[in-house]
Write a structure and sequence with these properties.
single chain, mainly alpha, Glycosyltransferase, 12 helices
Amino acid sequence: MNKNEFSEHLYNDLISFWASMKDDDCRGYYGYADADGIPDKTSSKGVILQSRILWFFASSYILNKDPKILLLADHAYEFIKEHCYDREFGGMYWSVNYDGTPCEDMKHTYCQSFAIYALSAYYRASGRIEALDLAKSIYETIEKNCRDGGGYLEAFEKDFSPSGNDKLSENGVMADRTMNTLLHLLESYTELLCAEYSANVESSIKQILYLFKANIYDPERKICKVFFDKDYSSLIDLESYGHDIEASWLISRACEVLNDDKIKKTMNPLIIGLAEEALENGIDIDTFAMNNERENSTVDHKKVWWVQAEAVTGFYNAYTLTGDENYLKASEHIWDFIKKNVIDGKHREWIENIYDEGQENPDQALVHEWKCPYHNGRMCIEMYARLDRE
């Protein structure tokens, strides 16, 4: 793979597309755009989407120091700071209306974590201490309001009283805890630690790693269980190939940032085990792309955009750790699949779902509250940086 392919796609395609989503009238970035890239200017703005856009522009600026990109990050930051943060109870809303007034004012740990992730990256890009202070405030809010004796709960009303977790529950179950939220909490705390050292944040990261090893990871099957009740009893037989390969490299990165040899040794079997299983059973033998998931004995062969992005990075990370070229080949094959099938030929943003040959590929929105520049942008940033070090 050529590092320049990733930087060119990042700067020529993705940044250009997402810059076009900038809302100059009501601030922030449009919350929805259809398959033709036409935004709905009155659509609500998911705070996860706004946070991921802030992270994307801030991290892209860190990579190449183009001041125009920092201005795009500034635009996202001002909207989040002024309209998405609840000054009464703390924490970030789930969504706001197009004009910045609260829409869904519930609080979710997943949403708080992405705000920390974005604000930490923005502080590193801009040096604005108020952004770091806000990230640290949300960290304290999570630790105060979202933790219990077993780890982290997820869904809350505006005042952080408990609520049903329908936002992060899928596949017919209602979960009290999810692997997905815990993984991105780990990711956001790692980014916060990179922004400024804190013994408390370091301790939180270590505790989350312990939760993964003790309750989330199944060492016999080499997968992460996905949905849980409060006691970490698994609610469904589900193997999420994208989340597993994503967890492999994000846990690896957390261990690198901690720089603790004991923790690295403890977590390495989990890191490699997840990559091994994803390589063995997650790859479609016909396309060499990554399938979506397996529920019970049924495999969902749909090729989801973010799953492909995480597989490129995750398998390349496994290759660097093990030297096993099968991981390198998988990363290369999936990147080839992305270039041929997933990148939209006109707008150069990614198509959300690619179905098996013969199935209809209906018009799919290029932007919505979960469709963002986070996974594909991060893949470009990570792969360029990793290949640049070689």
